Amino acid sequence: MSKLTEYLGIREEYVDDFELLTIELKQDKDNISNSYYFYVPENTSVELLEEMDWLTGLCIKNIPESVVQELSEIL
Question: Are 37 and 28 contacting, i.e. CB atoms less than 8 angstroms apart?
């Protein structure tokens, strides 16, 4: 599990579904705390959408910079 999946509270059985998605994290420039956000992609599985109570296009906000830094190191 990555810091992002842990932060979002994605259960282990849905981690693979989430990690297959192309998530484009964007920096929230209006927020002083350097948080990030992303929109839930159209190709998100129905199971993951239901598990997380998400809709496609939903904006997931306030992801801390420390979570995103781990992703930068992997890429």
Answer: yes
